[in-house]
Amino acid sequence: MATAQTSTPPSPKYKVIGTRPVRHDGIDKVTGRASYGADVQLSGTLSGWIVRSPHAHARIVSIDTSAAEAVPGVRAVVTNADLPEVTDDIEDLGEGAVSISDLNANVLARNKALYRGHAVAGVAADTVHIAEEAAALIRVEYEPLPPVLDVREAMHEDAPLLHDDLLTKEFGETITQQPSNVAARFFYEQGELEKAFDEAALVIEREFRTATVHQGYIEPHSSTAMWNADGHLTVWTCTQGSFAVRQQLSDLLDIPQTYIKVIPTEIGGGFGGKISVYLEPVAALLSRKTGRPVKLTMSRADVFEATGPTPATYMRVKLGVDKEGRIVAGDAYLAYEAGAFPGSPINPGCMCVFACYDIPNARVEGYDVCTTKPRTNAYRAPGSTSAAFATETVVDEICRELEIDPIEFRLNNAAREGTRRVDGVTYPRIGMWETVDAIKASEHWNSPIKKEPPPVLHATGNGSAARLAYGRGLASGFWFNAGLKSSLSATVNADGKVSLVEGSTDIGGTRTSIAMQLAETLGIPAEDINPLVADTDSVGYNDVTGGSRVTHTTGMAAYEAGMMIRGRMIQGAAAIWNVDEGDLQYEEGGVAGPEGKRMTFGELAAKLSQTGEPLSVTATVSAPSAGGAFGTHLVDVAVDIDTGKVDVLRYTAAQDVGTAIHPSYVEGQIQGGVAQGVGWALNEEYFYDETGRMRNATYLDYRMPTCLDLPMIDCLLVEVPNPNHPYGVRGVGEVPIVPPPAAIAAAVYDATGVRLYSLPMSPATVVKKLTQQGGAAAGSSE
Amino acid sequence: MSKKQVVTATINGREETFLCEPRQTLLEVLRDVLRMTGTKEGCSNGNCGACTVMLNGRPVDSCLVLAVECENAELETVEGLAAGDQLTPVQNAFLEGAALQCGVCTPGFLVSATALLRENPEPTEHDVRWYLAGNLCRCTGYDKIVRAVLDAAERRRNAETV
Predict the structure, then answer these.
(1) The whole model's pTM is what?
(2) Cβ contacts of A698 on chain B, cutoff 8 Å
(3) In CA terms, which of A176, A454, A464, B144 is 20 to 30 Å from A115?
């Protein structure tokens, strides 16, 4: 058994917060009753199929659908021509803005196919097999064009253009006259950079590359649409944001938002990849043409080839330190692939690249570059993981060069309250330093590496034969955490329990983390709250489940609702007792008054249900920021010298979580983020051939970590309460994916003396580097 | 298109007769014909384990089994694990151990873990990881899943039944 999990005990301040109740939707999810996207089945539903481009880059000359339409059982075929023309509005979807014109051309290709798998047409038929067969009869004439598969080649002035009219923008201003593949430039600076580098005792500059990777959620996208004769559209879909889907459909289909009802199903993972619409508008068009519900579900290959992975990148990072090891200057150049349409997370990448440190003189330049790959989308701390891989690797080299302990280096250079980040933000109270200090105090840091072959080698019988090098690595990371808007309503029932209606789709237990905050506010058990995730007609506006914002912001709305209920209960008790409201307090789950008067929440709920207005409240919140989160991770690895395979032996993640509402699900977020980061570090990448075809669009070949690839992941929950939240909540979901690649790269160096500057650090890459270096040069731990 | 065929199988202890095309997988028939949507589709090529069911006592990826092969078979799906409102130790351990986040891989894990504990009532952590390596989860990092299965083994030994 691995080491015990370490977590802070529940704060004595709270009764519900910090405990670990069974989640409210738990029974449904362990009995198979929970209904996900593909589980929706309405009477008379037709099945759809999407025709996808076999070319990475091609002009669409013509589309002939007649043969497909003649197949018995085919009910409708749609192409981009069936979508209304759109103006080029920009919509902010919470985790990134989107151009509606680009979205229109992404959901059904307009004039060009811009990546292999780009949707070209949709078919609805009596069965999915008929739809599939008919789709093969749609004749699309393509004029193939050269693919553009590398970010730096795409930036070259001779590169084939994806968009003939794309000019480079910088903070909204157009800065070029000639079209190119460069959609945007970002630039931030502070201090006196050149002078600081001149005076630095040590300057290290390195180049980095990372591959395209996917969120990898297990549930493929699935949407069902019903367009009624009265012009009202209902859509059942697995999404991170039902209101974001409504907004996009309204813009794409040119119908009022009020006529669109989006019913969010359970969602089988998203990680940022289920915000943009793909299938929903096509299903809606097919439903309008047929008058019947139409369901579209992606295959796994579709998910890889045609949704929104996170960009491949090219990066340069240069840091200068004085002789005490204090960072005096930082310079970064980041170029991120946007894929087919502008909108990579380059700007957050620029803001995150130096975010862990106090760097007085800094400059960051970033580029958003189109390539003939699927349009990228958010993936857990979008833009931050690759940037941290670059910065943290340079930091590790500096520590080696100056022989400074990497913990002490980080304690000396950590960003703190008052530190000004390169993009101009001055930090409020943050917990970067504290996460480093937590690792310093950890049992893991204070124990030697346990040099035993990883269990997987034992299992395959190679344990004793393998030549292994062992190493340890450390890295930190940052993510902003979004605030944004949330609404919910709460109704007190006569039985003393509360119905909670919310609009934040629940990917990882947020029904419970929100219900717990309402329960805490009211002083009643979490089980007495009954949370429901409602459709867009049944609850006020909510931004997406993303940006680590739901427990923070929707939780804030739950607190507000709880305070309103308390106020109403005080009013009610004052009337019952015939005393002044000012003489009453809400405490310990009830109202207390003069002369020892007291009524519990349950007693008041029963009494107030018989007199006066129903006790039902609505709370709306617009939160500016959720308080940035920091994490510092420590990892031990074994590197197989002969095969280049890296195994993670031990992992400890320290994170500033603000206040852990439900510590098990906070740990779960950290452990899940670490696992994704390990996959990003060691295995995951889109393999493209020269024609722009992804050659590994299956789970077998796009190799995500299995449980055999990972050890237990120990979590150190550091609680530095967020001063801007009633319960001190910060977002926790995203930052844990940020440090793993850099931490593992540092551990591989420690083990072998080989420094890797590209992701993934796959066996082939590692063994090649080892061979170039003439075998394993012993690292410090060998 | 080939004619549909009649197949009779025992599903979760009840004899069921259904019609299916020869090309339909067991997964498709469970979900689309029998409307038992607890079994999930993640990849349809046997890589993710979300569709794991028990076929004659052995865990299989139902996306790799043709439904016509199931004549006279004994099938067990996630819907058949609990006896009424009586959850199994594996289900209870997943709930209390927070071993699920989005929950879409959970049915496959529950079936695989149940099969493991029937074969090996006292697995080590490594036994669990080895046995469940065919089930992908993208949310949890597997930590709490592995702990829950070990906890379920303990609960079974302490008299709860699978």
Answers:
(1) 0.96
(2) 43, 45, 47
(3) A176
